[in-house]
Amino acid sequence: MSGAESQFEEERLVALAVRGDDEALASLLRGGYAMLYRYMLKITMNKAIAEDLVQETMLKAIERIGDFQRRSKFSTWLISIATRLYLDEMRKEQRAQKWQTAEQALQGIRFQAAMQQQEWPLALDALGGLSYEIRVPILLKYYYGYAYEEIAAWMDIPVGTVKSRLHNGLARLRKELKDE
Q: What is the pTM of this model?
């Protein structure tokens, strides 16, 4: 199926799903599952958390399909839901514990898990050492190609903050990868 045909098919399925067609919605969700899982795995650096967030995202998409405005691709909509869910989880975690202690402990666990699995490229290891506030914008911008404005809206921060986090995060990654 060509790109234009698959886009037409996605638009057809979205139109049906928004009108309440459960089979069309199931087809869209099946089609987006693998992409969403890979994204969440990169964001969370943790398979169990990634799986949970993908499932929660799928449930939210089922609940909110009637609200889908069709201004973006369905996959983009799924990523926006997943990103918000992840950011909400991280904010809850910050409120529950002292941020510094919790983040350092999580980063250590994630880094060790990544090293043990030996399936993570060096760049992902370096990403695992960054806070989620820096890791999320880097992945959204440079891996998935989203605009500064979209990232800012999803993270509920100013565009300038997104740019600053990207600049500082890339500088830290370059230093870490150079040291390796």
A: 0.67
Pairwise CA distance, residues 94 & 66, whole Å: 32
**Which of 22, 4, 80 minimizes the C-alpha distance to 13?**
22
- Helices 74-96, 22-44: crossing angle, 10 deg rounding: 50
- Angle, in degrees to the nearest 10, between helices 148-155 and 159-179: 100
The Cα–Cα gap between 48 and 19 comes to 33
Q: Is the CA virtual torsion 25, 1, 72, 84 positive or negative?
A: positive
Closest CA to 166 of 130, 141, 132: 141
Q: Can you list the domains of the chain with their CATH numbers?
A: 1-96 (1.10.1740.10), 98-180 (1.10.10.10)
Each residue's pLDDT tens digit, 129-163: 888 899 899 888 888 888 999 999 999 999 999 99
Residue 70 phi/psi, 5-degree rounding, is 65, 30
Q: Which helix (H) or strand (E) holds 18?
A: helix 3-18
Say how many C-beta atoms besides its own lie within 10 A of residue 99's C-beta: 13
